């Protein structure tokens, strides 16, 4: 049996539990000596001023995480982010794995999470992603890291029950050299039952090539939970606590991201909001009642080309189509169901100097598309001719830095300004802005807004709050600009930036049902939809909004459950034949 030991350098192929400053391939030593501090970041924030662009232009992902944690010590919004490493600071060179200088051996790395006791989660947890940190990495082509999530009765039972834990989710992350000294995000779907706890495991497998080396990242700041390692070649034949190995001054940076209020849905009218997360370059949809309940639909090509997406809106007469203007004046049509972008041409904000597009919205009264452009000194209103690919300059608004455009059901325009942090009404015929009042937050960087059907006294902002350093969903009263923060956007523990947002309302569920005794649930649906009827259901067919048949099932019973997990998020028509009668229903897939 090989002994687990600590060393300043591990030589000649011998194995050790490496937990020291190590030399990477260029011969340099990694350390924490030059790590940026929160005071450095706050000073940088003070020098940036107002910006129409992307937060990532000014702060790295880890710096964004530090700022977000600084301003939100005790967040009370979903999704919850569970961690034993609250600072998220990677102690470079202190990482742990059973390895020598050129390869890692088979490693199983663990961390238990006491959901009811430590985190106060008693109703179960729906997990959407996990995160973990790497220390140094040397690999020629990359290697897999397997993530496993287990359900256990009590966190205190670990590691005694490690061999009999219930596996509830698994995913694989392909690591590369670029992941060194960073925290990575891995989507994973798992559910922990009410009252239970969980264990997160990372698995490294030695592929025999003698070429893949890494240690997993740890923090040596204040932490709240023990970590464990099982590595037979280093003598740990069962999960062994760091404290038992003499390295109890550190713990793995493992993060669990999920929703502590799983389930929900239903009703006769459902409003979903679509938009762009510029930080992830992803077109998405989210639930306006809970912005943490979002679904990525497809990648945007705009951010990938080095540009910014700040103006977009869904056609109120065609909910399957959105239109987007980028800051380099490209004009796109977006398939809402798939997130596929098609460039139609270019449209520039002519007569507006150096202004860039900062907002767009359809007028629900007449179906015309309007857009707004600003250079942080002046703002201009435009009407967009979609087929002609031109923009009519309606006029100056009179406010300096509009970052959004919203139009309500009465045809009244609104904008919020990130220079003076105020809400304005916009006259769509002249462009003139009328001051309403100060916003209840400090707006900065690219963000958006929309109107939601049935609420003509308010607009909704997909804001970036400079005071909390996070993207937030706000309801703003159009009478006096007072507001309520409805929730924060959080992508699996990483910051989001919603450059534009656009709401649509669909009427769903029992109000469409015309066959006596027939019902279905849930709606919206995430995975399984259940159908119940007094008479036998003969067939069920699902169509997309373009009328294409997507999925079907035949039966001859009065109840059935259908798995819709393979469908893309969006709106579908469910056509059900019962006792020879056909009834159609709108279904929203989450």
Helix and strand layout, with pairings?
Blueprint: E1 16-17, H1 38-48, H2 61-71, E2 80-83, E3 98-99, E4 107-113, E5 125-138, E6 143-152, E7 166-175, E8 183-192, E9 197-204, E10 213-216, E11 218-219, E12 228-231, E13 236-241, E14 251-252, E15 254-259, E16 269-277, E17 282-287, E18 290-299, H3 301-304, E19 309-314, E20 321-326, E21 330-335, E22 341-346, E23 356-362, E24 369-374, E25 379-385, E26 390-396, E27 406-407, E28 413-417, E29 422-426, E30 433-438, E31 448-450, E32 458-465, E33 470-477, E34 483-488, E35 498-507, E36 519-521, E37 528-544, E38 549-563, E39 570-578, E40 581-589
Antiparallel strand pairs: 1-3, 2-15, 4-9, 4-12, 5-8, 5-10, 5-15, 6-7, 6-9, 11-14, 12-13, 16-17, 16-35, 17-18, 19-20, 20-21, 21-22, 23-24, 24-25, 25-26, 27-28, 28-29, 29-30, 31-32, 32-33, 33-34, 36-37, 37-38, 37-39, 39-40
Low-pLDDT runs of 5+ residues are: 1-14, 19-34, 73-78, 263-268, 508-513
| Named CATH architecture of the largest domain | 6 Propeller
Number of strands: 40
Main sheet overview = 6 strands, antiparallel
What would you give as the CATH superfamily of the largest domain? TolB, C-terminal domain
Average pLDDT, rounded to a whole number, is 84
